[in-house]
């Protein structure tokens, strides 16, 4: 089968890779759509080391189940599913406490095991979430990052009437706005790019007013200064949820945290199965469908390098349409 593989930093090739074997408890998914995010860019750029090259990229995807292994309900065959790409060990202390996001033995598609930018991928049966067959491919690509947002909102412990801000209006920030609006909140968005703020406003968010301070601030940018900016936006006694992953250490204004009695919380991915289940439910909402429709056409696998470059700057999400594949070597070079 064909896959989009990283051969060197910022160089990808469509090439043949071995067909995956379906074991007990697993399903084989024909991939339809793959979304790209900042984590994928760290691999594409060579900032995050991978076990070997060539390396199959990608972790956000959905498609159609084409076969199942022993112990999996055969009625899944033919169903449209979204793939949950973080697979915990299920036996460590974190897993036993239902905090699978902290499992030190997680298998992460596209990061420490081969990814999903391929014709087909094998995943555990309970990590292939059935969704309506009429979902467009763009919507399939949105569910995994939506689960990241759902988990952060849950961990923030928001209650009715609290003011909330999202720092960073990129793809993850937009997903947070979707999750917050669905939960009955009207988040304010802080971003230097007016197009990103405008995209968030179309789904019920609003632009930040410089005079406002917030009960909860969710930071997604991971850029220098963003952490300090998030702390500055919090009311005394407020909560700051850090989601962005800066490429290097950043300063935390500890004196401000202490003097104003702030709570600083880190939120990484999501916990299986509750957050992904909630994201699947939420993805059917009109607001999420509207964002999916606004993504437009995806790049072909042969244009994957262009899709990665788009992921740096698009106000919504860059994605790859896997409904057709270019012949090996047809993709454009990107240095």
UniProtKB/TrEMBL annotation:
Tree of life domain: Bacteria
ATP-binding as UniProt keyword: no
Residue span, Alcohol dehydrogenase-like N-terminal domain: 23-133
Cofactor needs: Zn(2+)
Matches recorded under Gene3D superfamilies: Medium-chain alcohol dehydrogenases, catalytic domain, NAD(P)-binding Rossmann-like Domain
Family: Belongs to the zinc-containing alcohol dehydrogenase family.
PANTHER family: L-THREONINE 3-DEHYDROGENASE (PTHR43401:SF2)
Annotated protein name in UniProt: Zinc-binding dehydrogenase
Biological source species: Aquipuribacter nitratireducens
């Amino acid at each position: 089968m064909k896959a989009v593989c990283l051969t060197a930093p910022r160089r990808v090739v469509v090439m043949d890779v071995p067909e995956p074997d379906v074991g007990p408890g697993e399903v084989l998914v024909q991939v339809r759509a793959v979304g790209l995010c900042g984590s994928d860019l760290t691999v594409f750029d060579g900032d995050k080391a991978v076990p070997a090259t060539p390396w199959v990229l990608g972790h956000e995807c959905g498609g159609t189940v084409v076969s199942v292994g022993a112990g999996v309900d055969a009625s899944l065959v033919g169903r449209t599913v979204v793939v949950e790409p973080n697979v915990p060990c299920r036996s460590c202390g974190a897993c036993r406490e239902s905090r699978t996001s902290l499992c030190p033995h997680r298998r992460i598609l596209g990061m420490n095991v081969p990814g999903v930018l391929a014709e087909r991928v094998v995943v555990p049966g309970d990590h292939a979430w059935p969704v309506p067959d009429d979902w467009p491919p763009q919507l399939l690509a949105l569910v995994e990052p939506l689960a990241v947002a759902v988990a952060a909102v849950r961990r923030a412990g928001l209650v009715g009437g609290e003011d909330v801000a999202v720092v960073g209006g990129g793809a993850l920030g937009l997903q947070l706005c979707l999750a917050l609006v669905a939960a009955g909140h009207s988040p304010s968005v802080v971003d230097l790019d007016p197009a990103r703020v405008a995209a968030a406003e179309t789904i019920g968010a609003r632009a930040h007013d410089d005079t406002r301070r917030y009960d909860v601030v969710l930071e997604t940018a991971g850029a220098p200064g963003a952490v300090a900016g998030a702390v500055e936006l919090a009311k005394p006694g407020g909560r700051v949820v850090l989601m962005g992953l800066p490429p290097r250490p950043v300063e935390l204004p500890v004196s401000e945290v202490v003097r104003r009695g702030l709570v600083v919380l880190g939120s990484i991915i999501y916990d299986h199965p509750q957050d992904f289940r909630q994201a699947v439910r939420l993805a059917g909402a009109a607001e999420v469908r509207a964002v999916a429709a606004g993504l437009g056409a995806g790049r072909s696998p042969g244009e994957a390098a262009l899709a990665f470059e788009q992921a740096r700057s698009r106000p919504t999400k860059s994605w790859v349409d896997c409904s057709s594949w270019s012949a090996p070597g047809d993709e454009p070079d990107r240095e």
